[in-house]
Amino acid sequence: MNKILIVLAALVMATAACKKSDFLDEKPDIKLVVPKTLKDFQAILDNDREINGIPGGQGLVPHLGETGADNYFLLDATFNAISNPLYRNYYLWAKDVNTSNPVPDWNRPYLSIFYTNVVLDGLKTLTAGEQDTEAFRKVKGSALFYRAHAFYQLAQVFAPPYNESTASAMWGIPLRSTADVGEKLSRATLLETYTRILADLQTAKGLLTIDNIIKERPSKQAAFGLLSRTCLAMMQYEKAYLYADSCLQLKSSLSDYNNLNPDAFYSFAGSDVKAQEVIFSSIMIGPDLQIPVNIFQAKADPDLYASYADDDLRKVIFFAPGFPSGNRFKGSYLGMDNLFAGITTDEVLLIRAEAAARTNRVQIAKDDINRLLVKRWKKGKVYPVFSSLDAEETLNFVLKERRKELVFRGLRWTDIRRLNLEGRNISIRRTISGTTYELKPNDMNYTYPIPLQVTGFNPDMPQNPRAGQ
Amino acid sequence: MKKHLIFFICLLVFSFCKATAQQDHVRGKVTSMENSNPVSHATVQWKGTKIITSTADDGSFSISRTAADSIVITAVGYQTQTVYGKSAGLIQIKMSPMINELKELEVVNTGYQKIPLERATGSFGFVSKEVLNRTVSTNILDRLENVTPGLLFNRGDAQSTDAFLIRGRSTISADAKPLIVLDDFPYEGDIGNINPNDIENVTILKDAAAASIWGARAGNGVIVITTKRGRTGMPEINISSNVSFQGRPDLFNVSQMSASDAIDLERKLYGLGKFAGALKGLYYNQPLTPVVELLVAKPADMDQQIEELKQYDVRDDVSKYLYQTTVNQQHSINISGSQEKISYYFSGGYDQNTGNLSGQDNKRVTLRSASTFKVNSILQLSAAITYSRDRDSKGSNSGYSSGRGYYPYARLADDNGNSLPLYFDYRKPYIDTAGHGLLKDWTYRPLDEIGREEHKVITGNLVVNTGASLKLPFGFSFDLKYQYMNQLTDQSDLFRAESYYVRDLSNRFAQPKAGKQFDFPIPEGGMFDAVNSELISHQGRAQLSFAKNWSSRHSVNAIGGYEIRNQVTDRRSSRFYGYQPDLGTVAATVNYTTKYKLYSTEGTVNIEPRQDIGKLTDNFLSWFGNVAYTYNNKYTLSGSIRKDEANLFGVKANQKGTPLWSAGAAWLLHNEVFLENLPFSLLKLRVTYGINGNVSRLASAYTIARYGGSATTNLVSATLMSPPNENLRWERVKSFNTGIDFALKNEVISGSVEYYVKNGTDLLAQAPTDPTYGFSNFYGNVADMKGNGWDIQLNSRNLNGALKWNSNLIFSSAKQRVTTYLMPVSKSPVPYLGGGISPIVGKPLYNVFSYRWGGLDPLNGDPLGFFEGKQSKDYNKIYNTSPLDSLIHNGPVQPVVFGALRNTLSYRNFTLSFNISYKFGGYFRTTSVTYLGVNYGKGGHGDYALRWQQPGDENRTHVPSYVAVNNDNRDMFYRNSDVLVQKSDVIRLEDLNLSYALNKNMTRKLPFKSVSLFVYASNFGMLWKANHIEIDPYYNNVPAERMKFAIGTNLTF
């Protein structure tokens, strides 16, 4: 009897001795963490699904720019098959494109910004010892780069084109700088927006290394590349030239399109383009049959298609004829139906060429263009070596090549906005059921409205003006 | 402390003094006639007076003398006895047990204590062994359907909302399943592990007072399952055995376009060039039906061959070859008895079921041993071990699911029964030529496949219960309980080398190389997927109880205690390639990293590694207390309090727990002098109020991340699960319950009527937020719900002569509506049409909404709808942008009123009982044709034959005219219009049980104590339905289950 009592007493003691806090602090799921360590932060940034976009995921870079640009058109039947009116409105640059539905072009980049802010907030809590490590610098530089990249992408569609003289009077985008959901949201000016992007990238380039094996992670050359792209969008050509040059000094290899199979369904599937040309990998939102710019339904713009010479490999590498009527784009650097929207050496080379032409470095511009074309032209065929020394002629030639090289990359929209500001008079036309719609140069519809989901929560937030019906 | 000690000593002395002074009292002891056990809580009353007391735990009583000379003793489960009370000395009273089954009801088990129902304030439902045993099923839960009010089993379309609910749903996104308690502890294992033959009874805890003792997990109600224990007396052996049969399901309940219609349409579509894309271009290898292949090949006798195909119906072959008659056998034996200080119960059970799909079967063995050891008068020990092993296996057979690409005239076997191929992934010409003979055979023959895959789940479950009960002085007792559970689940999926799955995978990864040869990255051999999981739980409880009566007027019953629970689930999954089942070898290396270009489709993928390790831990700590005070056997007050804390993740320490409470009162009117002339033996009013909770592990206060693998980089990555939510609170369910229990003195009618209100507050749901923060919604406490309803039970004894006739009627109503929800109403009605949870203030959680139907256009048979109040055919606008308030709210998916009527007739040795169930107030959407689907050319819904074809047809049909140009919005408008919505109201004869019983009292020659034989039949179908379109709402366009027929016997030695 006594023995039993002792056993019982021991049982009670044993239960009570369990430390209560430990017991209740045990993780319900071994895979969960409250992010605290550098390893956690690196893992958060390595979430390619949310940070870069992945095939089969939702992508990251807004498709709105490409959707509104002049690389493609839709057949009437395709247009009518789009059941969500939002996407039909996008295609025709309608004044009123907003519905209460989620706008992934806004939501996806801001989700990645939340990821980077969780990391940047968390890094501040690390000890001085932890902060003074290579790993810390890499994580911080990466977070700043990813955030700047997301801000840049948002500014291309939801903020007006950058114009130095008016930038401080125009609205940019909300610049989320913490993960706190209590933070008051408001739009920064356009000047503040671009200043922040440049400042973050400046810091990032000092923290990042040139290691560039995993293209989903940023590198020093990626930071230079994005800096040059941003400066180009800001029409600050001297800076664009210098940054592009810095980038190319670290990475400048090009793929030879002669090595590709022009009969492949996706020209770049299994190719070396990721190793050779990609500096930073990022994926456009899509593919979704609702989104007009979908390679299965978007037909290449006839003028664009006609601009490629017959010996220009890009004609057969980028486009598959007659699918079933009109030419299908098949040249995503991802080698699949997702559109690639990252940073590449060919883009940076074209930035340097353009900036060089605009800053009295005609010879450099010429050399860059020739370097590119030799990789794009059929082997054995003579490509038109460009040799004019006229700056304006050179610039026009570079811009033509830029037009032909960087298609369906999410870059054309920004180019049109920028080039129209200097009077190049680019109009886009679409015809649906016999009616022609036109987006005239410098139209205010080059800036998409802030989604209703956002303004609904922030009634005071200024909306982008829209024109038309 | 010292003061307390002195006080206790005084009490002790005082009580001794009292005991010696009881000269003017009559003392006695009440025991059971059956086994001489003491009968506690029996009421002892001088006849014709209000002098009353009750017996203690040892059956003894003491009552002051009066002028009256006889004493009336009443006790739960025993026949009332009257004895002469003037005899000297101890009066020994032997009570004979009540035969009437209704009486077993009167002690309910909450899992913490057994409460005499008479003193309970809360709402309890009770299902006795007899009621459980009149149904034949492998699973215990199936036996609770239609026998107790408040417990709803949803059927038909509503089943996908909540399979079963107690008093409606009071949460939005947390689990709405009631808590299941087995032998005093929450049971998280598979309910299929429990052998129904081992169950003594089931108690349903419905309101706050009944369930609040289970605290944070009781918001959805509690089902307390009590297993059989050793009986007292001579050993008794019980053997029961039954076998049941159920025919193949009726596939013709699924509407299908006739072969003739389908073939005619295919010819038309071919003419329109619909298959051009499949014949060249991107979809060049996509499968085509035999008719289209004939149209492509154009053999001379094409028309004749096509005509021949019109005679087939795929449902004939599927039914014949893929289904079988279900045969379930259930055998069990148990032995129980007691010897001196030990009582014991041993049982074994064996179930063998063949499923209704060919190749499907299930076996279960259960073993149980439970014994109680009475060490001495104060200490009692108990131990029970239950083991079960369940083996579920099936082949590659998913029956009649449209996923396998059955076209209406598909055949699975030729006239001689030889297996035929079905082309559902690739075209026949493609398969015939692909890889110029170097690839694996790429044809799929459904009948050959059945045995080429083996999907097995083996579940072994061990439950050990131990307990010690210590009787302490002054009415105190102390209990320690501990339960260990270990459930091992071994799931294996074997795909043999010759299975289509493996052949297809191997071919898709085939890599062409020089010389027209191939490399095969998928190793030769079969494939084996293994998922092993182990669930281990430890649960312990220390409980102090106090029960005491004072001067026959005051009675206090209290418990308090502490509980701890730890449950860990480990899960490991892995896939093996190149498995050779006969040798037990697997491929040594597989290249998971290389991205291969697929042979049959575009795109590059790597070989899926499919391996994962996970671990889940649930920890709970709880304090609880419960007290009931009864005055003069008339008034009872009860109260309870409980605090639960759990290892919630990412929350602050003070958010890990929540305190919950309840209070209640009961008034036993039949014990009132002023009502003694009323004809009631029981008349009780009761009312309770309290708060239960609900845990959701999805919510967190901090940002939390979940580790996983990245998609493209092979790096470890983490996903942020939610934005931080500082204001997180536990969900709470406030419930109010009031009821009346009654029984006439002649027992002709008894029953209870209850009304309840159940309000869920701080319910967790996805609430919208500014997407600029990174999330369009976050999981927060954003909703409130209100529910109310009635639970009524009526038992009547209609005839009590040679022919006995009893009826049991149950009636429940349950209504809920959302009262607060922070989400704005979507501008598009589409989210509200799907049948999922889209909370709307003022409506239940699951609704049927539909578009207003304007009939068919007499000119061309287009469906007519309405937009902004005007008749419209702008289907895009109607479907996508109609505001919600312009839609018709037909009603809830789940029934609002439900119940059953069970009649039991007995004559001599025969007993016949049958149960009729009813459900009212729910709605469902019937299916119909969509031309988008039909235009794929593989058949479709049978309503195609009823479509509008010429002017005038609009008067006989609502099926729109056929359109060759796909118009998704037109289809979707029609499919969601109110012309297709029906009431799911139904009355059905659920089951019938006819039994013949003999016992030794009747036939002395019988070699057993008793024997019974029974036949049982269930699923008779509908007696009445609200819809006029001949659809059984239980089987809305799905294969209909047939009647089940069982025969069995019970033997007792």
Task: Describe this protein's structure.
The complex is a heterodimer of chains A (469) and B (1053). Chain A has 469 residues and is mostly helical. Chain A has one domain (38-455): Serine Threonine Protein Phosphatase 5, Tetratricopeptide repeat (Alpha Horseshoe). Helices cover 46% and strands 7% of the residues of chain A. In chain A, a hairpin with a 7-residue loop joins strand 7 and strand 8. In chain A, helix 11 runs antiparallel to helix 12 (220-233). The radius of gyration of chain A is 25 Å and the shape is globular. Chain A starts with a helix and ends in a 14-residue tail after the last helix. The mean pLDDT of chain A is 89. In chain B, the strands form 12 sheets. Chain B has a 22-stranded antiparallel barrel. Chain B has a domain at 22-99: Immunoglobulin-like (Sandwich). In chain B, a hairpin with a 2-residue loop joins strand 38 (777-800) and strand 39. Chains A and B meet through helix 1, helix 2, strand 1, helix 3 and helix 4 of A and strand 27, strand 30, strand 34, strand 35 and helix 12 of B. Strand 1 of chain A pairs antiparallel with strand 34 (705-709) of chain B, so a sheet runs across the interface. Chain B: It is found in: Cell outer membrane. Chain B: This is SusC/RagA family TonB-linked outer membrane protein. Chain B: It is a multi-pass membrane protein. Chain B: One of its GO terms (cellular component) is cell outer membrane.
